[in-house]
Amino acid sequence: MTAATPEPKTLISVENVSKRFGDFYATREMSFAIGQGEFFAMLGPSGCGKTTMLRMIAGFEEPTSGAIRLDGQEMTGVPPYRRPVNTVFQNYALFPHLSVFDNVAFGPRMRDTDKAAVEKRVKQMIDIVRLGDLAQRMPSQLSGGQRQRVALARALVNDPKALLLDEPLSALDLELRRQMQIELKRIQRDVGITFIFVTHDQEEALTMSDRIAVMRAGRLEQVGTPEGIYEQPETAFVARFIGHANLIPVSVERATGERATIVLPGGGRCDVATHGRAFEAGARALLMVRPERIEVCAGEPPAGKPRMPVTCIDVVFQGAVERCAVRTANGEEVVAHLESDKPVKEARAGAALWLYWEPDAALLLPPDA
Question: Fewer beta carbons below 10 Å: N end or C end of the chain?
């Protein structure tokens, strides 16, 4: 029998934190904990409060109410330079007149660290970010990704307990951004400290994070692993924001325990998991099914599968998959992803088709708040 992986020790605790600017609440009563050595992402659209929360952890803003604890110590009134964290900003803020080595060495030198110790530590950090051959170059001689790595090394060389990253990949092009996602995760594993990463990009959060806090309009919607949030979102907002989700309006016929019987568009019925959410008979709800979990056919679907009659709108080739858009009897658009090497020949605009899925592929959610 495999032993359970122990929960990491809590390094940062956010306790009922609200931040108000005049009459505007940037965050409202947020509470969550971040473990030691964890890669933790704060994800949400612009204006959701994620950067404000990062700035409060760093000490650049103070909470209006609530408390933030770092390694068990309450941080109210503690200035940024006395907190055991470092921040990497979007613009990197490198010194243009200093070499890569001197940029990284700036912090330890300001603290009058022993020269030999500085040399050893700086070389170690430069090697971790894979810039050993470029140590004497100036920032103007580096690519965007290389400058970002210098900023990381400069923050890590001070041996913080946590590194705070405020959308540091946003200025990079798509391909470089994807490369740096993998690099950031590798660096975090190599140094073994907590990374707190702010982003509005779901791919970044899913690729790098151990856990994600999904935020919306200053409130915390859900905290969990990437897999847990993707497979079992707690709200329609999270379902839409993490990956692609079909949210099909349905009515609840009856609900008992962990299951509910629902009426689908077109009149069909099926049972669906509720995962403890309470639904009343006659209530409206949303059936969530991911596009990759839906099958499409022209004839009768296999027995025992939830199914729904639809009309095909169009089919678009997208490389490994074909995006098949259909319309339900209630006029809702639903998308299924078909494998390109296993096309459904009958799937074309105007064709009558069936959608079906495995019983455990769907989830019942309350309507949008």
Answer: N
